[in-house]
């Protein structure tokens, strides 16, 4: 909190000054009276919460809930929990402003209201995320503990069969195959293009960057439609894993390029300049300095692209038809994937099918979470900022190099000079 | 640039004499490996550009068949029956834009609040976790949001919709036809599958994208100016209003536009919630609307080549719209002060 709490008027100040004057006899010269350092003065608190802040929030919440409760039950024909929460929030803000205005001035009241609004907006967004995830797991929960859910496909499972029969293995396999194809297309091309944008500056590469940035929000369904119109209608490939992978790759290509470009741009220029100063060319600098230094950031870019690709439904919907059979051949036949399975299953009126659909969504969510955690663990560090393990690995490798050099020179020295001093010299 | 200047200009010669020294050539004399590398990189860039151009060009080419037949009526017709010869994007485009507007109107306050919370209010130890959570939220599959919206939100939102339409029904967009005001027996299905419900679900997908753009800019607001504001006696909110928000204004607009681009193209969650209806539906609380991407997802299986190319025409019009929105977003972010700092 920025508002500075007034300290209680320190009692030490007055008493301290009083004792010095009475003790002195009439002096010849007037010594300027110095106020002694007040003994009992407390350090000012310039941050933290006061009890009144907490009480004001709690009081406003209680008053808001109560006022809205009266409105809802007694006065108006209001219904619905969501409406209750929204109105409670609005009323609470008003009560809070009133409460704070009792003992603060206008700028402080504004500050408090802004803090209240900002906090509650943040809570709403994070709360929604947690709620969405918990809801998915709760609805899909009954399907998840059965082992057959992960080891069988749906080829012989009817809509009314119990959850102990049938599973999502075919969708997991299809998702992984399609993801592999998408990454196989998007990662090499995307990284090459990002290196191009970074290493070969000029008008043309600026143009490419603008186009790529604009394509980042290429609607995924249009990527699907493009692949549908080319591979499936013109080249008669048929709905297949390859087509789905290509559509996903096209969707995430601009995303990977953009993220990788940002990572490369954040690289400290001094590293590159040092490499040039040591006489290496552009290719060696890129391969031995730029890419290894940016590796964790680039890996994060790729994994976030993968997380996006794994969850896209609409390109897959157009390019790989739904099936209940497991299909490991990306060239022929329809291939199921998790988002498509969830989308297909919940359209059924049977409760077991809906539970299976939520179960598929939960498995998908777990895959995304795993990818995300991997991305956070290996990435998220600035270039050159190494983890403990990386530092140890570098130390080991430099120790090995040093040993090799010593060995080499020992060899040379015994061969050419054959003196004993070289062996003693620590290298 | 730096590579050009730092190239090995004096290759193996004697140290130059000071008086008769000729001007050094500072241009690159790149080796074969460097030339090959640059050629490959340029090839990659050109390939990406070609791919993007191919997507646009091919869709436009295929859409041309339908556009030529429909002519100007493509923009004004509401219904969608390419088999019967009359189809147009009037209804679906209005639906798409309305859903995107509802999504943005809900998402931007949430994104702005969360971005400010993370960059200004949250304790330092919590910040990294919160940033990771926002990124995670952007990575949650749209089908998961769709499930949530379809099974839970659209039923919970009925009460709120009814309340808004009862009290604010005199504003045209909040009107719901066929339901009397304060009618306790009114069926709930008049309010489900609406633009409002779809927009709310899309807003949850859009908010994290806008939020991370805004947060990055807010975090870069110069510390000197923040401290200056505090030194002049500003409260925290005063500091935010006079330093952080003006500094991040470009990012706020740019993040909003990026979110808008995503909201316009969102498919699966919208398909799951709305019930398709091909008339202009200006009442956002009422059941039944349509959007370009959901139209494509529902009708792509149609067998006749002509209806496919009609769908492509719709796709191209959506593509043009999102492209324009994204270009504007990129321009705004690049020109703002916050964008200039992050370029460095």
From TrEMBL, chain A:
It is a multi-pass membrane protein. Pfam families: BPD_transp_1. Residues 172-375 form the ABC transmembrane type-1 domain. Residues 7-41 have a biased composition (Low complexity). Residues 1-44 are annotated as: Disordered. It is found in: Cell membrane. Its main location: membrane. The chain crosses the membrane at residues 54-75, 81-102, 114-137, 168-197, 217-237, 243-264, 358-379. SUPFAM superfamilies: MetI-like (SSF161098). InterPro entries: MetI-like (IPR000515), MetI-like_sf (IPR035906), Phosphate_PstA (IPR005672), Phosphate_transprt_permease (IPR051408). Keywords: Cell membrane, Membrane, Phosphate transport, Transmembrane, Transmembrane helix, Transport. Belongs to the binding-protein-dependent transport system permease family. CysTW subfamily. Part of the binding-protein-dependent transport system for phosphate; probably responsible for the translocation of the substrate across the membrane. This is Phosphate transport system permease protein PstA. It comes from Rugosimonospora acidiphila.
Automatic annotation (TrEMBL), chain B:
Residues 93-329 form the ABC transmembrane type-1 domain. It is found in: Cell membrane. Residues 1-20 are annotated as: Disordered. CDD domains: TM_PBP2. Residues 1-11 have a biased composition (Basic and acidic residues). It is a multi-pass membrane protein. The chain crosses the membrane at residues 45-67, 87-118, 130-153, 190-211, 267-285, 305-329. Part of the binding-protein-dependent transport system for phosphate; probably responsible for the translocation of the substrate across the membrane. Belongs to the binding-protein-dependent transport system permease family. CysTW subfamily. This is Phosphate transport system permease protein. It comes from Rugosimonospora acidiphila.
């Amino acid at each position: 909190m920025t508002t500075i709490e007034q300290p209680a008027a320190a009692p030490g100040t007055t008493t301290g000054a009083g004792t010095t004057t009475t003790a002195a006899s009439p002096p010849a010269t007037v010594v300027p009276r110095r106020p002694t350092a007040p003994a009992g003065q407390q350090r000012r608190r310039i941050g933290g919460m006061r009890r009144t802040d907490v009480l004001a929030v709690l009081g406003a919440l209680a008053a808001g809930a109560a006022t809205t409760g009266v409105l809802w039950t007694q006065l108006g024909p209001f219904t619905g929990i969501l409406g209750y929460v929204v109105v409670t929030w609005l009323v609470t803000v008003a009560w809070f402003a009133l409460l704070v205005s009792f003992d603060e001035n206008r700028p402080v009241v504004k500050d408090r209201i802004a803090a209240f609004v900002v906090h509650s907006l943040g809570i709403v967004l994070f709360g929604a995320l947690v709620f969405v995830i918990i809801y998915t797991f709760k609805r899909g929960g009954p399907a998840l503990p059965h082992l057959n859910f992960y080891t069988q496909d749906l080829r012989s499972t009817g809509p009314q069969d119990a959850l102990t029969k049938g599973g999502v293995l075919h969708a997991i396999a299809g998702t992984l195959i399609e993801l592999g194809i998408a990454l196989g297309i998007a990662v090499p091309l995307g990284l090459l293009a990002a290196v191009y944008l970074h290493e070969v500056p000029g008008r043309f590469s600026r143009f490419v960057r603008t186009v790529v940035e604009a394509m980042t929000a290429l609607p995924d369904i249009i990527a699907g439609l493009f692949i549908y119109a080319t591979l499936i209608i013109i080249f008669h490939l048929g709905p297949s894993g390859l087509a789905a992978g290509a559509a996903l790759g096209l969707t995430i290509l601009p995303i990977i390029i953009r993220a990788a470009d940002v990572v490369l741009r954040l690289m400290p220029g001094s590293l590159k300049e040092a490499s040039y100063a040591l006489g290496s060319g552009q290719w060696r600098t890129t391969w031995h300095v730029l890419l290894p230094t940016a590796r964790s950031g680039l890996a994060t870019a790729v994994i976030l692209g993968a997380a996006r690709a794994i969850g896209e439904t609409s390109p897959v919907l157009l390019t790989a038809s739904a099936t209940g059979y497991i299909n490991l051949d990306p060239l022929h036949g329809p291939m199921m994937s998790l988002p498509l399975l969830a989308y297909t299953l919940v359209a059924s009126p049977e409760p077991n099918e809906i539970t299976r659909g939520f179960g598929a969504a939960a498995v998908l969510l777990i895959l995304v979470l795993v990818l995300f955690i991997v991305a956070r663990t290996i990435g998220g560090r600035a270039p050159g900022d190494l983890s403990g393990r990386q530092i140890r690995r570098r130390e080991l490798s430099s120790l090995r190099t040093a040993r090799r050099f010593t060995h080499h020179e020992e060899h040379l020295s015994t061969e050419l000079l054959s003196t004993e001093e070289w062996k003693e010299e620590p290298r | 640039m730096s590579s050009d200047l730092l190239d090995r200009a004096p290759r193996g010669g004697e140290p130059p004499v000071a008086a008769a020294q000729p001007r050094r050539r500072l241009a690159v004399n790149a080796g074969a490996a460097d030339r090959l590398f640059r050629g490959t990189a340029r090839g990659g860039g050109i390939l990406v550009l070609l791919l993007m151009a191919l997507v646009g060009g091919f869709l436009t080419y295929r859409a041309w068949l339908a556009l030529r037949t429909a002519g100007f009526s493509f923009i004004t017709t509401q219904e969608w029956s390419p088999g019967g010869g009359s189809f147009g994007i009037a209804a679906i485009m209005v639906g798409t834009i309305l859903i995107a507007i509802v999504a943005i109107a809900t998402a931007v306050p949430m994104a702005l609040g969360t971005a400010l919370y993370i960059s200004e209010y949250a304790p330092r130890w919590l910040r990294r976790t919160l940033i990771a959570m926002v990124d995670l939220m952007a990575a949650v599959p749209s089908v998961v949001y769709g499930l949530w919206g379809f099974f839970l939100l659209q039923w919970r939102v009925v009460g709120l919709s009814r309340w808004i339409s009862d009290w604010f029904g005199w504003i045209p967009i909040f009107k719901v036809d066929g339901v009397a005001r304060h009618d306790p027996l009114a069926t709930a299905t008049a309010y489900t599958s609406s633009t409002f419900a779809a927009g709310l679900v899309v807003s949850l997908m859009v908010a994290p994208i806008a939020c991370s753009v805004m947060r990055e800019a807010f975090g870069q607001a110069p510390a000197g100016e923040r401290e200056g504001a505090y030194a002049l006696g500003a409260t925290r909110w005063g500091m935010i209003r006079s330093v952080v928000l003006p500094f991040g204004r470009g990012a706020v607009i740019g993040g909003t536009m990026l979110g808008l681009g995503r909201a316009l193209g969102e498919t699966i969650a919208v398909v799951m919630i709305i019930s398709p209806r091909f008339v202009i539906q200006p009442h956002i609380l009422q059941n039944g609307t349509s959007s370009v991407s959901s139209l494509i997802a529902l009708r792509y299986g149609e067998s006749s080549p002509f209806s496919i190319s009609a769908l492509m025409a719709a796709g191209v019009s959506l593509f043009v719209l999102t492209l324009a929105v994204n270009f504007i977003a990129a321009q705004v972010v690049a020109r703002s002060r916050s964008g200039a700092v992050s370029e460095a």
